[in-house]
Amino acid sequence: MPAFPEIDAIRFEGPDSRNPLAFRYYDADEVIEGRTMRDHLRFSVVYWHTLRNPLSDPFGVGTAVRPWDDGSESVENAQNRARVAFEFFEKLGAPYYAFHDRDIAPEGATLGESNKNLDAVAKVLKEEQQRSGVKLLWGTANLFGNRRYMHGAATSCNAEVYAYAAAQVKKAMELTLELGGEGYTFWGGREGYQCLWNTDLKRELDHLGRFLHMAVDYAKEIGFTGQFYIEPKPKEPTKHQYDSDAAACLNFLRQYDLMDHFKLNLETNHATLAGHTMQHELEVTGSVGALGSIDANTGDLLLGWDTDQFPTDIYLTTQCMHAILKYGGLKTGGVNFDAKVRRESFEPIDLFYAHVGGMDAFARGLKIAAAIRAEGRLQSIVDQRYASWSDDLGADIEAGKHNFASLEKLMLEKGEAAANTSGRQEMIENLINEYL
Asked: How far apart are the first and last CA of the chain?
């Protein structure tokens, strides 16, 4: 029996539609810059928020009404939930999904029991993938929920916890491979510290580097060729997490000789918690060829925690898609809706409203970003701003033909640098508003 009997497949009806269960901008087959919207955006639904989040908060129990879920931690309930998940994916028209291991199957009393539970649910997931054509964008392991990870997982002060985490990731990687996952993500929710007085920071970072090298080695051993990702976040649940922002992650990857094996999965709400914009994180990552995937959400700037709201701000999605197009688009990653409906939006249909709105917001951002690029006015302003670097002096500096002494000689002869030109920030902001 269907879990969403009143919902038909979501269709594209165009900008004039007033149907809240139709796409106004996301036309999956529309071609933009040589690729379909489907291929540009590679939308993915997350299992943890969409299928597992009870919509609780620190001040109240969950409000979510999920008629298909009997509330138990049984394998049977998990298998039924998997079938419901694919009904949702199909009706929404999402080509991908993503999960943590503990999202899809209950954790057992032992590692062996947990693995057995995973295998039982994975069988259903595989059947549903084959039936529906929906694919796994990436898998990951929950190395933060169980109390054993109170001190971290790959950075734990307890060597046996470290070993358990390695075993859990090993199984999650095997499962991701079995399900044809196109990537695997590491998010260090508790890989950080609360108090530096009791923390051997260097040792913990060395252990984390060793852990990720073991993952790289095991991927080669089992033939997993999917992309590895690290997802930055500065804090929450720990006071400081080692993957605090894109620059910190990239520095870590360079330090431990992992740059060839990892790209970043960036999230808007994590960027703002780090004191950055998502556009900043995308530019920092894209500029070194490390942009892999994004978690599509937003935070409430009046609140200081990870609210994981659905993205509806067209300015934000335009910034995201402009940067993504600039750096060659998403290949193995996608636009992954790591977002949850609000606690007051508790009915099953609200899951559709939220995802339809997010998909339309990113589709519109894609169209606007492509129009900005096609017209070229913005790029012309940027080119003019850096024009001196195309002249003889700038070109020679970039080519390594100058040193301090030669530049001093040149400026002693000239006496003063050429006058600066205006940055035209307000004009540029007005220009962007023209497209919105």
From this structure: 43
